[in-house]
């Protein structure tokens, strides 16, 4: 069964528009996400751009000495490293000056060695280039100036560090900023290899995000159909099985003389529902409604140049899915013709009393069973 026919079946089974349900689910989900789940707080991330040894002599070379501050650092088993770190706001709101806790300034610590010097090397805005500063508190502690950092803005720093050559250089974030639960620390290479699924989904420029919208939209609809369609099909199968059982009970437990007459009616009931049968009967017993439906049917048939409309298993699909009142009247009247409840008689239509009696008997039985 195709997607379109599946959607049609779903709409026929339930008293709501499937498209309306999809739109409600989409916008309802967006509203729930925006209201309850979407994090609008700032988010600080330290990204280690590089951590490179600029002095790494692995072979013993006689007479070679490297002196720094009157110390032979080669003999002391030390090395010089360049550490580059980018500080960025990955959240959806700005970090303002009053967000910083003066008792716990933003910065970082190193685990060993000493920081010789540091400087800001780049920034995403002129404001950050001028105002982002670093302060060396001691040989292992760095603090940053309290600057305003808008979403997706950043500044980068470079440090020269003298540290033991056999000890990995580790960085530990410090400080407190209002709204930031934890300062993220990532290594650039590890970040590229082990980025979280969520970050991969939401990362990228505005144009990348815009291009994702139709993909996510149609993907959501397809996923919704995949989820809903099996339940709709199972419901349809169970409903059809139930109606076939009622028809079998009617044929078995009654001595109706109209069974042969009712064959088309049984199929119509199985393909539609009891409600459509009641609509047919309402038109038949009300002469005024019958006349109006006949006039509409004749006019629409003349306008279309044909007397027949699309059929469903040889029987009109009925008024379960109509666009307006005229279509409703047309399909109702067409169903009466297809079921043999009325037949053309000159310029008008004549009711078939025997088939009307057969229909009434069947409807009364179904009403009891479906009660």
Topology:
Layout (H helix, E strand, L loop, with lengths): L2 H11 L4 H20 L6 E10 L13 E2 L2 E2 L5 E12 L17 E4 L3 E10 L2 H6 L2 E5 L2 E4 L9 E11 L6 E4 L9 E4 H7 L2 H6 L3 H48 L9 H9 L2 H12 L1 H18 L6 E2 L2 E2 L8 H14 L3 E4 L2 E4 L1 H18 L1
Parallel strand pairs: 1-11
Antiparallel strand pairs: 1-4, 2-3, 4-9, 5-8, 5-10, 6-9, 7-8, 12-13, 14-15
Helix pairs in contact: 1-6, 6-7, 8-9, 8-10, 8-11, 9-10
Give a short synopsis of this structure.
The chain is an alpha+beta fold and 371 residues long. 46% of the residues lie in helices and 22% in strands. The chain is built from eleven helices and 15 strands.
What does this molecule look like?
With 371 residues, the chain is of the alpha+beta class. The chain folds into 3 domains: 3-37 and 207-234, no CATH class; 44-203, no CATH class; 254-370, no CATH class. It has 11 helices and 15 strands. It has helices at 3-13, 18-37, 126-131, 188-194, 197-202, 206-253, 263-271, 274-285, 287-304, 325-338, 353-370, and strands spanning 44-53, 67-68, 71-72, 78-89, 107-110, 114-123, 134-138, 141-144, 154-164, 171-174, 184-187, 311-312, 315-316, 342-345, 348-351. The strands form 5 sheets. Strands 6-9-4-1-11 form a 5-stranded mixed beta sheet. Strand 2 (67-68) and strand 3 form a beta hairpin. The longest helix is centred in the middle third of the chain and has 48 residues, at 206-253. It is rod-shaped, with a radius of gyration of 39 Å.
Classify the helix fraction into a percent range: 40-55%
Radius of gyration: 39 Å
In the sheet with the most strands, the strands line up as: 6-9-4-1-11
Which consecutive residue ranges, at least 5 long each, have pLDDT under 50? 306-322
Count of beta strands: 15
Q: Please identify the structural class as seen in this structure.
A: alpha+beta
Helix-strand pattern:
HHEEEEEEHEEEEEHHHHHHEEHEEH
Structure annotation, total helices: 11
The structural domain count equals 3
Fraction in beta strands: 15-25%
Terminus-to-terminus distance: 31 Å
User: What's the overall average pLDDT, rounded?
Assistant: 78
Q: How would a textbook summarize the main sheet? A: 5 strands, mixed
The best one-word shape is: rod-shaped
């Amino acid at each position: 069964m195709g997607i379109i026919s599946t959607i049609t079946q779903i709409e026929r089974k339930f008293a709501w528009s499937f498209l309306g349900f999809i739109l409600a689910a989409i916008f309802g989900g967006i509203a729930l996400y925006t209201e309850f789940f979407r994090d609008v707080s700032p988010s600080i991330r330290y990204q280690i751009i590089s951590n490179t040894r600029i002095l790494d002599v692995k072979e013993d070379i006689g007479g070679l000495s490297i002196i720094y501050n009157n110390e032979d650092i080669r003999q002391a088993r030390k090395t010089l490293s360049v550490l580059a770190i980018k500080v960025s706001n990955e959240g959806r709101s700005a970090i303002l000056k009053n967000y910083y806790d003066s008792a716990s300034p933003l910065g970082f610590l190193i685990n060993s060695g000493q920081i010789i010097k540091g400087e800001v090397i780049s920034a995403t805005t002129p404001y950050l280039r001028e105002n982002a500063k670093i302060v060396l508190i001691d040989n292992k502690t760095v603090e940053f100036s309290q600057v305003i950092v808008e979403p997706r803005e950043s500044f980068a720093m470079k440090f020269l560090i003298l540290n033991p050559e056999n000890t990995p250089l580790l960085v530990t974030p410090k400080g407190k900023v209002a709204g930031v639960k934890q300062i993220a620390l990532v290594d650039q290479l590890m970040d590229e290899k082990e980025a979280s699924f969520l970050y991969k989904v939401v990362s990228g420029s505005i144009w990348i995000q815009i291009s994702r919208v139709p993909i996510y939209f149609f993907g959501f609809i397809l996923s919704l159909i995949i989820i809903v369609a099996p339940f709709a099909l199972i419901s349809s199968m169970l409903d059809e099985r139930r109606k076939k059982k009622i028809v079998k009970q009617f044929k078995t437990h009654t001595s109706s003389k109209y069974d042969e007459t009712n064959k088309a009616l049984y199929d119509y009931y199985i393909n539609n529902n009891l409600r459509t049968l009641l609509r047919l009967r309402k038109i038949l017993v009300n002469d005024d409604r019958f006349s109006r439906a006949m006039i509409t049917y004749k006019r629409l048939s003349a306008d279309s140049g044909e007397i027949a409309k699309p059929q469903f298993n040889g029987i009109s699909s009925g008024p379960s899915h109509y666009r307006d009142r005229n279509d409703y009247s047309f399909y109702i009247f067409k169903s009466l013709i297809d079921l043999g409840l009325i037949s053309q008689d000159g310029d008008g239509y004549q009711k078939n009393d025997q088939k009307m009696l057969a229909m009434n008997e069947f409807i009364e039985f179904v009403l009891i069973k479906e009660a």
